[in-house]
Amino acid sequence: DVKVTQSSRYLVKRTGEKVFLECVQDMDHENMFWYRQDPGLGLRLIYFSYDVKMKEKGDIPEGYSVSREKKERFSLILESASTNQTSMYLCASSLITSGSNEQFFGPGTRLTVL
Amino acid sequence: KNEVEQSPQNLTAQEGEFITINCSYSVGISALHWLQQHPGGGIVSLFMLSSGKKKHGRLIATINIQEKHSSLHITASHPRDSAVYICAVCPFMNYGGSQGNLIFGKGTKLSVKP
Question: Which of B31, B105, B107 sits opposite A101 (nearest CB)?
Answer without folding.
Answer: B31
